[in-house]
Design brief:
alpha+beta; 2 domains; three-stranded antiparallel sheet; 43% helix
Length: 103
Amino acid sequence: MLVLSRKVGEIITVGNSITITVVGNERGIIRLGIDAPRDIPVHRKEVYDKIIEMNRQAAQTKVSALKQAISGLDLLSTSADTPLHTDRLELINQANLDKKRIQ
């Protein structure tokens, strides 16, 4: 771990595309400004941990629960010209394939 001391207004660079600026230090609370490309996610640790936990829970969702969740949707009412139509059919087909693998 790299440990640095910085004053308000000073900047740290990470790679070629990320900058971290110390924007404030009041009553022991340090405020940082992080500038990163949109394709690089930047989260506080507690938010990142929550995302990981939600992804774990989603990965454990059973196919039957997914089928039940989508059973009330009118998935075939979209015209064939709409890209969502293909995506929806693909999801249904994938759910059916996954169900066959589980059985």
